[in-house]
Design brief:
mainly alpha, two-stranded antiparallel ribbon
Length: 681
């Protein structure tokens, strides 16, 4: 895929002839009419497999205004799927038994509080609370709870079973399996009697008791302290959302004015690091060579051992270090040559990143898109989980082997319905992501073409939302469905992988095949996400259906591989830096507030857990900021490539924003050709 992305479109000839060059220059200076990009590249039409579709004249002023509904069939399919989801919900609510999922089983495989004769005995109790006797359980009417040892009961009201014929305390035995210990408990999930005072358990085994005490008493104490800290400093958590938002704006300003400097500094440091690593390896190899010579002289003098055998490891390490040194230097030279070849592409990527920062400064309202997407996705996932619990509980319940927990056995129809519900999760989440990407791309495209003589930039957010639900919901649902199917297949493969692990070595070959399939579908999922994102940008600009948009997006990337690769590489670095910067800056501010402010520093037990929450809040805000920024950069690059072709076809000036106009001017001044005159920068 890397070679696919860096491939340049083949030419019918290695260079233009002098006559063709003269014609080209006369077209640029207005002596001859400019030819359309399609006619201009007619001579290599047969050699270029992937080509962008004919440019629509309506694109000359920016994104197409007059649109029609696209992929109506897929839109209807999505609506029908939601109707099916409501039927699944009704079926699950009618037949599901979610109460069984919170039910524990006694040693006789009876469900406490559910099975006949057990309705009054709903609490599970461990008479011998040791890991080796985890399956020795009994159902109680109520959990034992007392304030002091004088109130401790001598027996418990339990459901007698053959494995536990009596619930009277029995600690005077050397056989641990027959021991019945009564201890103070607390109730969890309104079902589980859990040890409250672990001192009594030391009668059984002090080591296990210390483990329980460390895991649960300390954990309970830490949880209580954390809850108390959250209640004390909850205004700071709300303030962190605003703090993270401010640092997001600061990072956008930084990107606008310093992204170029940072990029060239990182490239310079990369080249220096390669040269330095090569020098260190070379010096280390020389040291080994000198030590080897001295060792050979010493060995030859005493004659006790063959020098070649004694120095075998030293010689091998020396040669490996020499190889690393020459490899680092060779990579450094190759990188330097690539830098010379990609210099203008790197400058273009920097200009695109700066333009994206300008877009966010102008269209600040677009930052609400990821927030709405997160809220809507969270609401849907909550609804999905509730229904899934009911659907999951449709079947025959039985005790899981060796544990008091339940297991459900589905029939064939239930399996298909669960699979249907899993696909619903992936499809809807992918669609929410697609809608947010389309809206951001649409706003960025409107902004790009508003800088020249194109469309007016008014109400971009509402217009983009209108276009989604009025014209292109079917196309976005189509792309989301393809991605959701691949993700569902990966879930099915993971399920069978988990099942095969129970067979140990009996199915090793099949395990390898499933692992390879999982890897292939993971690569396919990444490719579909990449293609979908660029297809949505094409839909936002041209208003085409999904298949045509995916074809045009792939053709555009195929014809501009280095541009997209360089932008993706540099952009991914800045996106990562932005997320981490916003998260850490928010964490530092929150930490300083809770440790310096008199109101809060004495009200918390520890700043560690609140600081972790500060980091999580800052990171999620950073992800929202950077998702808008990254999508805007991709959309602006596609608009720039489209603007090139429109300039050649319609003999007009570029509509690029100022930062890109400055880049074009520099290229025209420093080198032959420019983006607006046909040469590829």
């Amino acid at each position: 895929f890397f070679f696919l992305m860096i491939r340049r479109p083949p030419r019918s000839t290695q260079s233009r002839s002098s006559a063709a060059s003269d014609v080209y220059k006369r077209q640029v200076h207005g002596e001859l009419p400019l030819m359309s990009s399609t006619k201009y590249e007619q001579r290599d039409k047969n050699q270029l497999k992937f080509k962008v579709s004919e440019l629509d004249d309506r694109l000359n002023q920016g994104p197409v205004e007059e649109r029609s509904c696209t992929d109506i069939i897929c839109c209807g399919l999505f609506i029908a799927y939601w109707v099916g989801m409501f039927f699944v919900m009704s079926w699950g609510f009618n037949k599901g038994k979610p109460q069984y999922l919170a039910t524990f089983y006694d040693a006789n495989s009876k469900a406490c509080g559910v099975d006949d004769g057990y309705q009054e005995y709903k609490y599970i109790y461990f008479p011998t609370p040791l890991p080796a006797y985890f399956d020795k359980t009994v159902c109680l009417k109520s959990c034992p709870r007392y304030d002091d040892s004088s109130q401790k009961p001598k027996s418990l009201d339990c459901k007698i079973i053959p494995q536990i014929p009596s619930c009277v305390e029995n600690t005077f035995t050397t056989n641990v399996s027959s021991m019945f210990l009564i201890y103070n408990t607390t109730t969890y999930l309104d079902r589980l009697c859990f040890p409250f005072d672990l001192n009594e358990l030391r009668k059984i085994n002090n080591t296990y008791t210390q483990i329980f005490e460390s895991l649960f008493n300390d954990g309970q104490r830490a949880l209580d302290n954390f809850v108390a800290d959250v209640k004390a400093i909850w205004p700071i958590f709300l303030a962190c959302f605003g703090i993270a938002f401010v640092f997001g704006i600061v990072f956008m300003i930084f990107m606008r004015y310093f992204s170029g400097v940072v990029t060239w500094i990182m490239i310079a440091l990369y080249l220096v690091a390669l040269a330095g690593l090569g020098w260190l390896c070379f010096q280390r190899a020389k040291d080994l060579a000198n030590g080897e010579a001295g060792l050979q002289a010493k060995d030859s003098g005493d004659g006790q051992q063959n020098p070649s055998e004694k120095n075998e490891n030293v010689t091998r390490n020396k040669n490996i270090l020499y190889g690393f040194a020459y490899g680092f230097w060779a990579l450094d030279v190759i990188s330097l040559l690539a830098l010379c070849c990609l210099f203008s592409r790197i400058r273009l990527a920097i200009a695109i990143l700066k333009a994206s920062a300008d877009f966010l400064k102008t269209s600040f309202q677009v930052l609400i898109v990821p927030i709405v997407k997160i809220v809507v996705t969270g609401i849907f996932i909550g609804y999905w989980i509730v229904v899934f619990i009911f659907v999951y509980s449709v079947g025959d319940f039985q005790q899981r082997d060796g544990t008091p927990f339940p297991a459900v056995k589905w029939d064939k129809n239930t399996r298909y319905i669960v699979l249907y519900w899993v696909l619903a999760l992936f499809w809807n989440c992918a669609l929410f992501m697609a809608i947010s990407q389309f809206i951001i791309a649409s706003c960025a495209a409107m902004w790009y073409f508003s800088n020249g003589g194109g469309q007016q930039y008014h109400n971009p957010l509402t217009r983009s939302v209108w276009r989604v639900f009025r014209y292109h919901l079917g196309s976005l649902a189509f792309g989301s469905l393809i991605l959701a199917i691949v993700q569902t297949i990966r879930v099915v493969i993971s399920y069978y992988q988990a099942q095969l692990k129970k067979g140990a070595d009996n199915y090793r070959l099949l395990q390898y095949l499933l692992t390879c399939s999982q890897c292939l579908f993971d690569c396919l999922e990444r490719f579909i996400k990449f293609l979908n994102k660029n297809a949505y940008i094409q839909i936002a600009i041209k208003g085409s259906n999904f298949c045509q948009a995916a074809k045009d997006a792939f053709a555009l990337i195929w014809q501009n591989p280095i541009r997209f690769s360089v932008l993706a590489g540099i952009g991914s670095i800045f996106l990562f830096i932005g997320k981490i910067f916003i998260a850490f800056a928010t964490t530092v501010c929150g930490y300083l507030i809770i440790t310096r402010a008199e109101r809060y520093k004495n009200a918390i037990s520890s700043p560690i857990l609140p600081s972790i929450l500060f980091f999580i809040i800052g990171y999620f805000i950073g992800v929202g900021f950077m998702s808008v920024y990254g999508m805007a950069a991709d959309a602006i690059l596609q608009c720039f490539c489209l603007d090139e072709e429109l300039c050649k076809k319609n003999n007009r000036a570029s509509y690029a924003p100022k930062v890109l106009q400055d880049f074009i001017t520099d290229v025209e001044r420093t080198g032959p050709g420019s983006p607006t005159t046909g040469s590829r920068v």
